[in-house]
Design goal:
Elements: E1 15-16, E2 18-19, H1 23-33, E3 38-39, H2 44-51, H3 56-59, E4 65-67, H4 72-82, E5 89-92, E6 109-112, E7 119-121, E8 127-131, H5 136-144, E9 148-149, H6 160-165, H7 173-176, E10 183-189, E11 195-199, H8 204-209, E12 219-226, E13 228-229, E14 233-240, H9 244-259, E15 267-275, E16 279-287, H10 298-301, E17 306-309, E18 312-314, H11 316-325, E19 332-341, H12 344-358, E20 368-376, E21 396-405, H13 411-431, E22 435-436, H14 456-469, H15 474-477
Parallel strand pairs: 4-6, 5-6
Antiparallel strand pairs: 1-2, 3-4, 7-8, 8-12, 9-13, 10-11, 10-12, 14-16, 14-17, 14-18, 15-16, 15-20, 19-21, 19-22, 20-21
Helix pairs in contact: 1-4, 5-11, 9-12, 12-13
Bound molecules: flavin-adenine dinucleotide.
């Protein structure tokens, strides 16, 4: 590997007393139990799986083998081999995560869930059961035929499983809540291979923990969502020529939009302040009904300097595909997330922090940095999830940092750029008294303490649920990718024996 992946650089062999196996052994056992579904580094299927990750740094990680289950039983079979042999593993859904090693593992086993992608709509169209690695584009397209949808994340290639386990802010969050809030039931394969369902009546503690708790409890093979009726929408991007006036006007418009006491729940926007050879200001609008130029966007539409306006009546599948096309794969990507209480001064500081960081990009091939500012408004909040979001009347601004570049050789430099932006944002928010503890898991940087940001009550709940359903800490220790609870007793891995299965 080209980079030091700290914990991911650990050997595949995990010791709990004596060494308990190796990845080569695990791969051989998997190949014999799941014939035709285990791929080694010399195979085309292995190469194709790696090439399909969105971020280059994930494509460059080379597992010992890749397992491609197509059913929950396959996943169970795989865990019953991997876990007792203490092999390190990663779980891959849609492959759009950016935290290093989030869904792939050097010298370990990568479980590529993409074969688990069925989509089944109930007869009354009120629920849809979706395979753990179906993509949002496929789900939106399938459901659009029936005039319904689910409140998932934006880009078509994103995995439903990964994005929903992290919360999932999307087009419909103001009216429907987050993706996780619409999940009525999860099918989960636990560390010991048991396949269970979690809903409000059965295993309800796990059901709740999965609504934002990430990959700390098991491998999710099916998510059953409540649907809602949907027809056409109005949406698109507006690009502006950048001037002090544009920046000031977008900041004022964003503040007023998010703090509007009569917030229109069909409407959502984000403002992107970016730098790619030059500063960029972009506003993305979505109105979840075919209403052109709804009055709620008036203040944004009055911002001077419009260069290009792509807004139109469209459909969610089209919008989602276009969102994906605007974010091509194969680049090095670093993202981070922070949240602040809606405040115009802080919005302007965010722009200035991004501009200050742009001075470090000279000579970096393909360098682009950006801060996406998205309102979190009170109507998005539901009681069942574990994110611990408390939204004041003026709203919160979720801030997503992105740093993109071409070459792995620039990783260290660009990682410093990301770290600097994040610490400057946090410092500014604290100075202005608008810092909020919430960190969006779906865009967090590897080392950000996402789960602690849910508040101590939710954090304790997550630890208790993980301790109950994964008492030996398999998803903490053997599966290092993702945002972990990592409480200290789980560092000491108890030995496995046949009674575990
Ligand atoms: C272009 C682009 C646009 C985006 N837009 C949005 C957006 O609008 N809203 C939003 O909320 N996020 C958005 N995201 C972020 C995205 O939601 C996260 O990156 C998410 O983690 C991706 O899930 P995945 O399954 O595709 O990724 P992966 O990298 O495959 O998985 C991410 C994590 O989830 C785990 N995981 C995945 N599936 C399962 C499963 N079935 N069971 C257990 N663990 C699983 C993996 O182990 C890994 O830890 C965007 C990302 C990109 C690249």
């Amino acid at each position: 590997m080209l980079r030091n992946f700290s914990v991911l650089g650990l050997l595949c062999v995990v010791t709990s007393g004596a060494a308990r196996g190796s990845c080569a052994n695990c791969c051989a056992k998997l190949a014999s139990s799941l014939p035709g579904k285990v791929f080694s580094p010399d195979s085309a299927a292995y190469e194709a799986s790696l090439a399909s990750y969105w971020a280059l740094q994930e494509q460059l990680i080379t597992p010992s083998c890749i397992v491609s289950p197509t059913t929950a039983i396959d996943v169970s079979t795989a865990l019953k081999i991997i876990v007792p042999d203490s092999c390190k593993f990663a779980v891959r859904g849609g492959g759009h995560g950016t935290a290093v090693g989030v869904a792939n593992i050097e010298d370990g086993i990568t479980i590529d869930l993409r074969g688990i992608d069925t989509i089944v709509l109930s007869e009354d169209k009120e629920q849809v059961a979706v395979g753990g690695a179906a993509t949002l584009g496929d789900v939106y397209t399938y459901l659009a035929q029936y005039g319904v949808s689910i409140p998932g994340a934006r880009a078509a290639g994103i995995g439903v499983g990964g994005s929903t386990l992290g919360g999932g802010f999307g087009y419909f969050a103001p009216s429907q809540g987050l993706a996780a809030d619409s999940v009525a039931e999860y099918e989960v394969v636990l560390a010991n291979g048991d396949i269970i369902t979690a809903n409000q009546q059965s295993n309800s503690d796990l059901w709740r923990a999965l609504k934002g708790g990430g990959s700390n409890f098991g491998i999710v093979t099916k998510l059953t969502f409540n649907t809602f009726p949907l027809g056409e929408v109005w949406a698109g991007d507006v690009f502006f020529s950048v001037s002090n006036e544009t920046v000031q006007s977008t900041a004022t418009a964003l503040y007023n939009f998010a703090s509007n006491p009569d917030y229109d729940e069909n409407a959502s926007v984000f403002v992107l302040y970016a730098y790619q050879n030059a500063p960029v200001v972009l506003v993305e609008y979505t109105y979840t009904a075919p209403v052109v130029d709804a009055p709620v966007f008036d203040e944004f539409e009055a911002v001077p300097g419009q260069l290009l306006n792509t807004t139109a009546v469209t459909t969610i599948p089209t919008l989602s595909a276009s969102s994906q096309a605007q974010s091509p794969s194969g680049f090095e990507q670093i993202t981070f997330a922070m949240t602040f209480v809606n405040d115009e001064q802080m919005i302007l500081e965010a722009y200035n922090i991004m501009i200050a960081a742009s001075s470090k990009l000279t000579g970096v091939a393909g360098a682009a940095i950006g801060l996406t500012l998205r309102p979190i408004v009170p109507s998005m909040i539901r009681p069942d999830d574990v994110l611990g979001l408390e939204v004041p009347a003026q709203g919160l601004i979720q801030t997503i940092g992105s740093v993109q570049f071409n070459l792995t050789a620039d990783y260290s430099l660009m990682n410093n750029v990301a770290d600097q932006m994040l610490s400057d944002l946090e410092a500014a928010a604290k100075r202005l008294g608008v810092y909020n503890r919430y960190i969006d898991m779906n865009h967090a940087k590897t080392e950000q303490k996402v789960l602690e940001g849910y508040g101590s009550q939710n954090y304790e709940l997550l630890k208790a649920v993980a301790g109950k359903y994964d008492p030996k800490g398999v998803f903490q220790n053997l599966m290092p990718g993702g945002f972990k609870l990592l409480w200290v007793e789980f560092y000491i891995l108890a030995p496995f024996d046949s009674s575990d299965h």
